[in-house]
Amino acid sequence: MNTLTHAEPRTRRRPHRIRRTAVAALALAALTALTSCTPDTVAPADERARAHEAGGDGKPGARVKLAGGEVDCAVAKCIALTFDGGPGKDTPALLDLLKREEVPATFFLLGRKHIEKYPETVRRIAKEGHEVANHTWNHPRLTEIEPDEIREELTRTQKEIARLTGSEPTLMRPPQGRTDDTVSGISKELGLSQVLWSTTAKDYSTNDSGLITERTLDQAGRDGVILLHDIYKGTVPAVPGIIHALKKDGYTFVTVPQLMAPAKPVPGTIYRP
Fold first, then answer.
1. Is 84 a catalytic residue?
2. Out of 52, 130, 135, 229, which one is annotated catalytic?
3. Is residue 12 domain-resident?
4. Catalytic hit among 6, 52, 84, 135
5. Cβ neighbours of residue 259 closer than 8 Å, sequence gap 6 or more
6. N or C: which end of the chain has fewer CB within 10 A?
7. Can you tell me the distance from the alpha carbon of 125 to that of 98, in angstroms, rounded to the nearest whole number?
8. CA proximity to 4, closest of 177, 236, 150
9. Catalytic (active site) residue 148
10. Are 82 and 195 in contact (CB under 8 A)?
11. What is the mean pLDDT of residues 171-183?
């Protein structure tokens, strides 16, 4: 029972932003076809709301600390910027930008040829306050391999990230968004929550930074999760325009765990806005 590919469509539309693109329309059709076989998912905003209700403290949510101050995503327009498949050669330049703009991000790191090739970048991502997460070692479709192989893909990445940063990730993103009950069970066993997305620029299919920016802004919405890849030529040059446009539109960037606060991600749960 598979879920989403990186053609995962938007779930909401930003009014008065950019015209709806043809790719978004095609992605919406793909979602309709997949709906019947998608495992249960939880929206980060719903997890946040449930934690507030359970706490009974009378507060809208929880304020989380950012470089530029504090934010409560139950009140503010929050959005999470996430990057898959790195680190890569352009990741340091991306980190420079994120630091200048005081934007935290969530990095789903890939082991083979990435974590093992750029260990200092992994350390830097963690040191600069970004969320370090697991994207497997070899990027297989987890729904097409044996349980022991799934466990090895995730465990090897966990251990290497822990060796470099001092702590194991609590989040993982299954390659191509493909997950099922077996993947969820192993993720729970390893203390990992799964994080899907609401916005994809399909940046693996184009080097056109302008198109990547347009697709991202067209799909972005409150409490959303943006999927980009810091390993493709056109992506990092697109990020400044994405950040500036969303800030101008009133968005605050947070990590995925910050988007859920005061809740904490639950191992085994599949989160998708």
1. yes
2. 229
3. no
4. 84
5. 44, 45, 48, 73, 78, 79, 80, 223, 225
6. N
7. 10
8. 177
9. no
10. yes
11. 98
Domain residues for the domain of 98 are: 76-269
Whether 55 has a pLDDT exceeding 90, the answer reads no
The SS3 of residue 269 is coil
- Inter-residue contact 39 to 3 (CB < 8 Å): yes
Q: Position of tokens 């963690």?
A: 126
* Backbone angles phi and psi of 199, in degrees to 5: -135, 125
| pLDDT above 60 for 177 | yes
Indicate whether 208 belongs to any domain. Answer: yes
User: Which stretches of the chain are DSSP H helices?
Assistant: 22-34, 44-55, 91-101, 119-127, 147-165, 181-189, 209-219, 235-248, 256-260
pLDDT at 97: 98
User: What's the whole-number mean pLDDT along residues 204-229?
Assistant: 98
Q: Is residue 153 part of a domain?
A: yes
CA 42 to chain centre: 14
Contact 136, 156 (CB under 8 A): no
Is residue 212 in some structural domain? yes
- Residue 77 CA to residue 250 CA, distance in Å, equals 7
Whichever domain contains 207, its CATH number is 3.20.20.370
Residue-wise pLDDT for 80-105, tens only, equals 999 999 999 999 999 999 999 999 99
Contacts by 189-193, CB closer than 8 A, 24 or more apart: 189/151, 189/267, 189/268, 190/151, 190/154, 190/155, 190/158, 190/267, 191/267, 192/134, 192/154, 192/158, 192/267, 192/268, 193/265, 193/266, 193/267, 193/268, 193/269, 193/270, 193/271
- Number of domains within the chain: 1
Enter the tokens of residue 150. 């799934």
The terminus-to-terminus CA distance of the chain in angstroms comes to 20
